[in-house]
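// run 5 | inverse folding | seed 20
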């Protein structure tokens, strides 16, 4: 496979992954912002006792903007083969990893942390691979 074709496949996988992450994050972010008490989502604010937050507003904003809209935007930029798509994907992957680690640290482990942690690692690696392919 040529370098150009491998870069194309990396971008395709990034598009799929970033859209998946964004589509998963947007509804949860909106729900957290709309009801910072977490009642409608079945998440009492008591679970935040070990975190720096008293309600879900700030986490919801971060989830919506970075993991939601940011990932969808990253997916569009990867699809368009934007020059800095690899750097953006790497940054988004890194932030997703940090986001999951912070959740586990503050809230404890939930089964959804595993796939999203893996998604963050894969996104970071694909972003780095795309950066390397684009510099050739």
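// decoded
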């Amino acid at each position: 496979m040529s370098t150009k074709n491998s870069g194309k496949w990396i971008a395709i996988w990034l598009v799929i992954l970033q859209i998946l992450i964004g589509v998963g994050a947007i509804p949860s972010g909106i729900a957290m912002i709309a009801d910072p008490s977490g009642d409608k989502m079945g998440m009492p604010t008591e679970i935040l006792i070990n975190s720096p937050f008293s309600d879900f507003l700030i986490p919801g904003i971060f989830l919506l903007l970075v993991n939601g809209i940011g990932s969808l935007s990253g997916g569009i930029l990867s699809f368009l083969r934007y020059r800095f798509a690899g750097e953006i994907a790497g940054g988004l992957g890194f932030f997703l990893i940090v986001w999951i680690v912070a959740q586990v640290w503050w809230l404890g482990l939930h089964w959804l942390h595993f796939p999203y942690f893996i998604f963050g690692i894969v996104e970071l690696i694909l972003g780095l691979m795309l950066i390397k392919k684009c510099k050739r």
